[in-house]
Amino acid sequence: MPIYSIRPSLALRGEAQINTSKNAVLPIMAAALLCHTPVTLHRVPQLTDVDSMARVLEACGAAVTRDGRDMTIRADSLHSPADADIMHRLRASILVLGPLCARLGEAQVPMPGGCAIGQRPVDIHLRGMKALGAETAQENHLAMARGKLRGGGLYLDFPSVGATENLIMAAVLAEGVTRIENAAKEPEITDLCDFLTGCGARILGAGTGTLVIDGVRRLQGMDFTPIPDRIEAGTLACAAAMTEGSVLLTGGRTDHLRALLFKLREAGVIVQQDARGLCLRGRARRGVDVRTLSYPGFPTDLQAPMMTVCCRAKGRSVFLETIFENRFMHAAALCRMGADIRTEGRMAVVEGGGPLYGCPVEATDLRAGAALMLAGMIAQGETTLLDEHGHIDRGYERLDEKLRQLGADIEKKPGSI
Ligand code: UD1
After folding, report:
1. For residue 212, is it within any domain?
2. 189 shares its domain with 92
3. What is the rounded distance in angstroms from the CA atom of residue 31 to the CA atom of residue 29?
4. 35: domain CATH number?
């Protein structure tokens, strides 16, 4: 149960290196279950969600070994996972459904957990599996799919990231051609397709709304390095945008961050890209309106850090959260710190520019936790951020340390209350 003690930071300066993406690594780990020979992933971030996913794969019969930042996954003898507790630790555990059904002809997977930012059903996953010829059911907290998978035409009611990933993984070993329409276009989907293609899969259209997958009999493992984490980069960019500093983010992909960078520029931040990386100077001065959307729209995972930026900027910002129905939990904590935010359903109106005051606050979910850490950096006095469930460590590798290297005054105490 970490507790962070945060004091104001006037200006962030220096360089931070961006890690490999959590949201790319997790589905690729699940995809390793499709391979008949070992998969080795490089630059794997040290995150508790990655540890939990490794345990999920082990619960499915795979062997997972780590050597520093390399992870090797061998999926020789697989079975459905029985340990509901480990499956409940993260949302991405549902991603073993497609691979297990593809390899074993049936899968029973305890319902996933993850951040409580909405209902997060799995209906799109199951409807897609059904369109691929599986019998599906959801009962007793289990998601089930059974039967030989055959290519088919699928239309997703919403371009769900997880459902697109699950269905790609189911379709690569299905007999015949699958066409997934209204597929998610996130960079992590393209990365998964790049990995699977390297293993021998036939996938066209990655990064577009229509994927065409021609099933193959077997996939071979390979060595692979997933893409950099656009959400970590975006969170650090938001931190830089709150203080009068100059921060260089190296190793990230700015082409994956365009929506955020447009908004930061609109708010008055100087954003430059050169051969070394992404440089942010100055701070956000004007409020901006933000509507979260599927990629390439503004990412819902950066909505909370961006709201903290808008508390600092002068004027009104209107946030519309269109992806998750309960993703303004950080707003209440920001208000406790003195922010002027009114929320109404999926809309939040921020009147920015007033002072924030340090006080005890709690991380209610992963990105909300990051947003509050950032808020502590611009608040007067001391902010105590309690992360009872270790949300921040699930998705950011030593975020406090990275911010500290840039000049933030943050102390992490293992603590218990
Ligand atoms: C992934 C990301 C998460 C990000 C989200 C949206 C990972 C591990 N997590 O989560 O960080 O915030 O994408 O960019 O990659 N939905 C349904 N039925 C379904 C599936 C989803 O109604 O079967 C709804 C969800 O409740 C939510 C919306 O679709 O409202 C988006 O969810 P989805 O894109 O599936 O997000 P995740 O894959 O869970």
Report:
1. yes
2. yes
3. 5
4. 3.65.10.10
Higher model confidence: residue 280 or residue 120?
Answer: 280
The answer to whether 367 touches 301, Cβ cutoff 8 Å, is: yes
What's the 154 CA to ligand 1 centre distance in angstroms? Answer: 18
DSSP 58: H
Q: Give per-residue pLDDT as tens, 60-87.
A: 999 999 999 999 999 999 999 988 888 8
Look up the domain containing 291 and give its range.
Answer: 228-412
Does the pTM surpass 0.90? The reply is yes
| Position 10 in a domain | no
Contacts of 156 (CB under 8 A, 6+ apart): 124, 128, 163, 164, 167, 180, 181, 182, 183, 184
Pick the residue whose CA is nearest to atom 30 on ligand 1. Answer: 324
Closest ligand 1 atom to residue 231 Cα is: 11
| Domain final residue, candidates 219, 252, 278 | 219
- Asked if residue 114 has pLDDT above 70, the reply is no
Atom 33 of ligand 1, residue of closest alpha carbon: 160
7 is a domain residue: no
pLDDT band at 326 (very low <50, low <70, confident <90, very high): confident
Residue nearest to atom 17 of ligand 1 (CA): 121
- Active centre residues (catalytic): 115
Q: Which residues line ligand 1 at a C-beta cut-off of 6 Å? A: 23, 26, 91-92, 118-125, 158, 160-163, 188, 300-301, 323-324
Report how far ligand 1's centroid is from the alpha carbon of 411 (Å): 32
Residue 417 pLDDT exceeds 50: no
**Pair 72, 195 in one domain:** yes
Q: How many domains does the chain have?
A: 2
